[in-house]
Amino acid sequence: MSQPLISIIVPCYNQAQYLDQCLQSVLDQTYENWECIIVNDGSPDNTEEVAKKWVEKDARFNYYKKENGGVSAARNFGIDKAVGKWILPLDGDDKIGNLYMEAAIRYMDSDFEVIYCNAEFFGTENSVWNLPDYSFKEILKHNLIFCSAFYKKPSFVKIGGYD
Q: DSSP letter at 122?
């Protein structure tokens, strides 16, 4: 397989109970040119056991463990290891629809820096997440996009990562 176009970064701290569902949603993608970097952020639960099972299942999964430093540090750590041109952050307790990557790659040769879609809550609340329309002015004040939006790795590196 050629170099992964998409690097999925999964920081995990005390989310082992959800991690199987998260990683299954990655494996279920119709688009297959990806790598998934699981970052155990010093989690005291059985994150390592769950993650290693996925690494054994599919070579596109990679596992790293680091000292706890918070989600931003875990994402930065994983992105530093990533080889894909596009980054897809995915929290350990989130899932993505099986067509998400396939739909997104249609826009990756354009001038877009960020690609995202509609989102839904699941679990205790099952409903559409009504995000406000994108506005450059408004995104400077508060977040308008959920964390699992694709963005270009070179742009991420240019801004210095998550703080």
A: -
Q: How many other C-beta atoms are found inside a 10 Å radius of the C-beta of residue 121?
A: 10
Rounded Cα distance between 99 and 122, Å, is 17
- Tokens 């998260």: give the residue: 22
pLDDT score of 110 = 84
Query: Are β-strands 127-129 and 86-89 bridged in parallel, bridged antiparallel, or unpaired?
Result: unpaired
The reported pLDDT for the residue numbered 33 is 95
Distance between CA 35 and CA 39 in Å, rounded? 13
Per-residue pLDDT at 139: 65
Q: How far apart are the first and last CA of the chain?
A: 33
Residue ranges of the chain with per-residue pLDDT less than 50: 1, 3
Kindly provide the b/e burial profile for residues 23-60, where b requires at least 16 CB atoms within 10 angstroms of the residue's own CB. bebbeebeeeebbbbbbbbbbeeebeebbeebeeeeeb
Cβ burial of 124 (10 Å; 0-12, 13-18, 19+) is: exposed
Which of 11, 8, 22, 153 shows the shortest CA–CA distance to 73?
A: 11
The tokens describing 27, both together, are 């494996």
Q: What pTM value is reported for the model?
A: 0.85
